[in-house]
Amino acid sequence: KEKVTTTKLREMKKDGQKFAMVTAYDYPTAQLVDQSEIEMILVGDSLGMVMLGYDSTVPVTMDEMIHHIKAVVRGAPHTFVVGDLPFGSYNVSVEQAIENSTRILKEGGADCVKLEGGFPVVETVRALVRAGIPVMGHIGLTPQTASQVGGFKVQGKDADTAKRLLEEAVALEEAGIFSLVLECIPAELAKLITERISVPTIGIGAGVHCDGQVLVFHDMLGLFQRFVPKFVKQYANLGSIIKQALNEFHAEVVEEQFPELNHSFSISEEVLAAIKG
Ligand code: KIV
Ligand code: NA
Fold first, then answer.
1. In angstroms, what is the span from residue 44 Cα to ligand 1's centroid?
2. Which CATH class is domain 6-236?
3. Domain range summary for the chain, segments of one domain joined by +
4. What pTM value is reported for the model?
């Protein structure tokens, strides 16, 4: 498979060709995605919740992001990799945002960075793009600042918020983003935004009209047990398959059915006799 480029993604939008992105946080998962038809991998800061067991994405550090991005990049040479900027890594100053984004590209090896927010990050986005860093935006429900937007719920149901989100999408495009994640907004609003801007939108809980769709790996495969958001479709329940396999292993150990002869090594009768003396 050929790695998509930001130019290719824009062409796909123009041609009405949809694409998919999924999160990955480690080498074996990245390899599986790399061998699939999925166009993009997001090493999201959702890793804090689904991989590290934090209550939110807020505690995730730059070092944690880099650690996981490096593993994913090694496993997915043919897939476009997006690296999330974690909370607190781009809001202190434009310089800080450029330094941390540069780490994600140079140390991590990702193809671009993603950051959350609308108007408050427009100038940062402009500076990053000017510094040569491809930037993916992310508006709607922004988990890093969920408490500011009233918790984990749909954004843009009222006219004022919806209008602001539309204006933020336009402002981010003007600042130079090459793509925009729309999280948890009404499908009609996502359609309006998708029609209004020329860079591809990628929806999660944003309806079918976005140019692409993204899901969290652990959500779509039944590997995250704490809750299942309404916008998630579970394409498999690997959690129950894994638990069944673990219990089978345990039962076979208890019943001395594992290991079998073909999993074991042996020595000849003579050697055994010599050992026993
Ligand atoms: O971190 C993440 O997984 C994300 C997606 C929900 C878009 O940002
Ligand atoms: Na994220």
1. 5
2. alpha beta
3. 6-236, 241-276
4. 0.96
